[in-house]
Amino acid sequence: MDTYTNIAWVIPLLPLAGFLVITALGRGFRAASVWVGSALSLASFVLSLLVLIERLKPNAVDYNNGFDWIRIGDYTLTIGFEVTNLTALMLVVVTLVGFLVNVYSAGYMKDDERITVFYGYVSLFSFSMLGLVLSDNMLSFYLFWELVGVCSFLLVGFWYARPAARAAAKKAFIVTRIGDAGLFLAILLLFWYMPEHSLSFTMIESVFDHQGGTITAGITTLIALLIFLGAVGKSGQFPLHVWLPDAMEGPTPISALIHAATMVAAGVFLVARTFDIFQASEAAMTTVAYVGAFTAIFAATIALAQNDMKRILAYSTISQLGFMMLALGLGSWTAGIFHLFTHAFFKALLFLGAGSVIHAVHTQNIQEMGGLGKSMRVTAWTFAIGALALSGIPPLSGFWSKDAILTVALEQNPLLFVVGLAAAFCTALYMTRLFVLVFLGKPKAAKASIAGAKESPAVMTAPLIALAALAVIAGFVETPWNGWFASWLSDEAGASHGSALAIVLSIAAGMLGIVSGWLLFGKRRERSGAGFAERMPGLVKLAENKYYIDEGYEAVFVKGLRGLGTALAAFDKYVIGGAVKLAGVCANAAGKLALRLQNGQVQTYSLAAVLGIVVIVIAIIGRRMLS
Amino acid sequence: MSFLQDIPILSILLLVPLLGFIVILCLPKHRAGWLKTAAVITTLIPLALSLWLYADYDNKHGGEGYDESAAWLQIPINKETATNADTEMVFSFQYALGLDGLSLPLLLLTGIVTAMAALAAFHVKKRWKAFFSWFLLLEFGMLGVFLARDVFLFFIFFEITLVATYFLIGIWGYYNKEKAANRFLIYNGLGSAIMLIAFVMLVNTAGFRIEETAAGAYQYIYSGSYADIAANMADPNAFVNLPAEATGGVNPFQMSDGMMWTVFILLLVAFGIKLPIFPFHTWMLKVHQEAPPSVVMIHSGVLLKMGAYGLIRFGLFLFPEQAREWAGVLAVLGVVNLLYGAILAFRQNEFKLVLAYSSISHMGIVLIGLAAFNEIGLQGAIFQLVSHGLISALLFLIVGSLYERTGTTELTELGGLARSMPFMSGVLLAAGLASLGLPGLSGFVGEFLSLLGLFESMRWVTAVAVLGIILTAVYVLRSVLKMTFGPQKETFAALKDARFIEALPMIVLLAFIVLLGCYPSALTDTVDFSVDGFMKLLLATRSGG
Fold first, then answer.
1. Membrane topology for this entry (chain B) (predicted)?
2. Same domain for B434 and B522?
């Protein structure tokens, strides 16, 4: 029957085996590490695809398996795996992007002396991410959640000798850990409140689905918000978004795989997986929607003013993840997952395209680039497809998924619809700016690497082409006229409800963004958008500096902790150390006093002895009299 | 394996280091190679035996087959104080060894850490013979502490570790070694004195037992036996069933409420100094900084755990009601330890001091687990003991190897070591990640179970404690990345990575850390019986009283 579904647990083990083999071989086996990594990721992709095909059959049964991890008395903590339509979809997305990134990296990382370490880390990441996707309960989800975090940390800091990479890796780990602390507490709450201390997603669904359960509204909201805190950290939502742009210090294939397509989407996946808890709490849903919408517009405006090619894409990712959160908060988790699905392809494409450019020109500053469209045709065309998909231009995939979100917003909350529309406009605007400055016109910096840029090798362009194809077609699974994707995903016969108004406004926003981008940056290419900056210097400066949020955190949290540390260090040294010294001094003084008694005069000794006897006699008599 | 039942395996395990000590004494003192080989082989035997015991341990029966005892000391007491002239009164101390789910993992931990520390003791450059003699005596003491089932015997082993450590720090330490050794001895001596007072009080109250002699008379025994004390503490009414002439007409079990509290608090302070509980922690900072690496491995890996072991064995198991009433106090102390240690670790620029404060922080988790007062928390506390023992031993092993090469462990002077020493930097990072509680490595399980346990009864305290998992990440990454990441310093460009003999103990320790992180049942199942039994006992007495 469901042959492949039943062995879905093998899918994460393949890259784990890859990691172990590559690590055991050591640094000498450069080509072997590439082949092992790529072959095993291909194998896990094929298996995932077979699982997905099985899931496409009507009435496919969810598969669940696991083992006891810890047994304490009557409590059991398990690690379990589960295949549902959602997890099957995620498996394919993760393994497909993972495989393409493996192939691409063979070219991109070719000259790096630690390429074997790189492939080892990427395999370990794939294992962790696939484990996360397959997890059937909150605990095993959390284990893998932390593991993907640490892989991200290792890969951001891959070029460890750079101080910026070191700082970025540390920041990525610590900022996401703040969110993880929330998720950790949510798990503790769930463990003690759920019937039979179960942490499984199935159980969560059945408990929170029927709201008459034992869990009060307040606790439900608390759990939902704490889970959301975890998602905010991982998915770079405001106010924990600060780590994601810095994470661009990692190699670009990693930015595509981890910081665009898979790991950062895990927060969205988490909310979708525990969606029943959110639905049981009005406050939590509102929070998710508003945080998502705010992040979408907020990050998009920052992206407008950045000059680093990868950072623009990073802010774009934050913004698009905000769109997904918005969809979830508005109650349509299928629309959120749909955008996650399409975004994975076109954003991975954009990052790999950026990597191809950076690989050729050795700079990330778009103000230095220009005219690369002529020398790098494949990269330019595929990048254009990705940019159009992201900008929401029909019939590319991004249009359909963004439209699905905007349609829901229009129905539920006109304010959020307007915010979303504005964010969509900004998206088209900054992507046009990026494309124009990089690929059109003439090079702005007199660098030989830019003027003489060559197209990347086939091993890098082939993944671009594959992803471009997906960026074009992936959206057709769900259109305003065909709600197949949502009903397959949610196992509910969903009625597709397109809204002509939403479609028209969404297309208009995208087109307007492109046109204004062209007018601002295209027509006066030589001035590279300086005109806009002249007109509104304060606003641009604010966005350029990312609204000074990093500086604010530095001043409040980092300095605060340092100050607290200094204060406590002084306390430790002077108060506690002082007390210990005082005790020492007292003991010494007592010793000196006793020493004075030992003066060698027999008379003194006998006096002391007599005094002692008197005391003892009094004590004995006193005791007798009392009893 | 019935044929093995008659072999006193615990005694063999305990006496092997003593035998090794004698062998070392017989070897010529200039033969460093012989001395070291003898020491390493000696430490491998208890390791192998404890591994075998661990594998053979039947968690259903709690290892009841491993009780070895013999009469040791009988001190008659002046008869005139007795109410009945026929009765004999004696103090009785036994050579009693035992094993249960609580002591077995710590016994194995001792075996592992000591053997690895012996392998790592290449840094000893002088007086090898004296070093390895004290070293093996220290192991003898540690094994004894975890095996002893008589308070007097326990006390003696405890003191042996103190003396041995004192000399190991004082002779082979760094610049301020004498000062560190003295502070260690004074502070711990104070703790021992308090412990002794508590034990004497216990022997004279709960240790009391009445036996009928062959002549038909009664013998009053004040026993140091843990089994006797525990039985009396668990059931204070045991004497009610005795004939009046045996007890002199009154229930001789005279442990008033005030007395119980006194003993409990004395034990808490005595073992709290060892653990260490804030504010009794200052002595161990110097020890971490000045003691030779292999000794800190043992100190941080095993000796601190003796404090927690004593607290559980005597404080918690004998005085569950008092401990339960003070659960809130323990929890707050635990959180203070956790956060105070973490913030101060963040502030240090000397890596050894980072690790010292880190130990304080991690011992806070143990207190948190104990304060939970349920099976999950208690399991978490014990898991944390074993896990931290392995992790801190690994960290100090690396510190020793690093110091040998760089001559410093100041964070400001180090940087970019991953370039010249990729293996050691990788292991350091792995140990750091284990320390900050990364799932898949052992640190996470102890932390998770302790906090999960405490959450049942004290939610807000737990919520504050969860801040610790962020702060731990902050200080661990700050220090580890400062050393290994970043631009390489010129002076360290030519440094060599770990030799095989250094890499071996690192790999062994890391393997155990990964094993426990991925398969925690290997430990929790062993502990389960003891903890389960304790909790059941507690519930029974609570419902009875």
1. Multi-pass membrane protein
2. yes
Distance CA A256, CA B535 (A): 52
Q: Is B423 on the interface with A (CB under 8 A)?
A: no
Please give, rounded to a whole number of angstroms, the shortest distance from the CA of A187 to a CA of chain B: 9
Residues of chain A below pLDDT 50: 526, 528-529
Point out the residue among A70, A144, A579 whose CB comes nearest to the CB of B524.
A70
What integer pLDDT is reported at residue A627 of this predicted model? 61
Enter the pTM of the model.
0.91
Domain presence at residue B36: no
**Is the separation of the CB atoms in A324 and A292 below 8 Å?**
yes
Residues 451-510 of B with CB under 8 A from A: 451-452, 455-456, 462-463, 466-467, 469-471, 473-474, 477-478, 481, 484-488
Cβ-based neighbours of B264, under 8 Å, separated by 6 or more: B315, B319, B322, B323, B326
Per-residue pLDDT at A367: 84
Q: How far apart are CA A319 and CA A153, in angstroms?
A: 22
Angle between helices B226-234 and B151-172 (to 10 degrees): 120
Q: Find which of A72, A118, A160, A187 to mutate to test the B interface (most B CBs within 10 Å of its CB).
A: A72
Query: Which position has the higher pLDDT, B231 or B236?
Result: B231
Starting at the earlier edge strand, list the strands of the sheet with B68-76. Answer: B68-76, B88-97, B218-223, B208-212
Cβ(A460)–Cβ(A104) below 8 Å: yes
Element (H, E) at B71: strand B68-76
Out of A69, A70, A572, name the one closest to residue B344 (CB).
A572
The residues, ordered by sequence, that sit 6+ positions from B215 with a Cβ below 8 Å of its Cβ are none
CB within 8 Å: B438 and A75 = no
Domain ranges of chain A: 1-136, 335-520, 570-626
Do residues A130 and A96 make contact, with C-beta atoms less than 8 angstroms apart? no
Tell me the DSSP string of A120-162: HHHHHHHHHHHHHHHB-BHHHHHHHHHHHHHHHHHHHTSSTTS
pLDDT tens-digit map of A40-96: 999 999 999 999 988 888 777 888 888 889 988 888 899 999 998 899 999 999 999
Any CB–CB contact under 8 A between B418 and chain A?
yes
Number of domains in chain B: 2
Cβ atoms within 10 Å of B451's Cβ, excluding its own: 29
> B431: domain range?
100-106+143-202+257-544
Tell me how far apart the alpha carbons of residues A591 and A148 are, in angstroms, rounded to a whole number: 60
How many CB atoms are located within 10 Å of the residue A528 CB?
Answer: 20
Residues of A with Cβ-Cβ distance to B524 under 8 angstroms: 70-72
* Average confidence score pLDDT of chain A: 87
CA distance A153 to B435: 16
Q: Which of A353, A290, A350 is nearest to A314 (CA)?
A: A350
Average pLDDT over residues B104-112: 94
Question: Which residues, at least 6 apart from A173, have a Cβ–Cβ distance to it below 8 Å?
Answer: A149, A150, A152, A153, B473, B477
Q: Which two tokens stand for residue B68?
A: 């070895």
- Asked if residue B114 belongs to a domain, the reply is no
What single DSSP character describes residue B408?
A: -
Give CA separation, A616 vs A620, A622, B197, B495, B514, in Å. 6, 10, 21, 70, 63
- In whole angstroms, what is the distance from residue A554 CA to residue A576 CA? 30
Q: Which two tokens stand for residue B465?
A: 């404690």
First to last CA, chain B: 42
User: What are residue B95's DSSP bridge partners?
Assistant: B70
Based on the domain organization, do B222 and B368 belong to the same domain? no
Nearest to B450 by CA among B354, B532, B375, B348: B375
- Nearest 5°: the CA angle A403, A407, A408 is 125
| Assigned token pair, A540 | 């641009």
Token digits of residue A297:
């517009």
Q: Which ipTM score applies to this complex?
A: 0.91
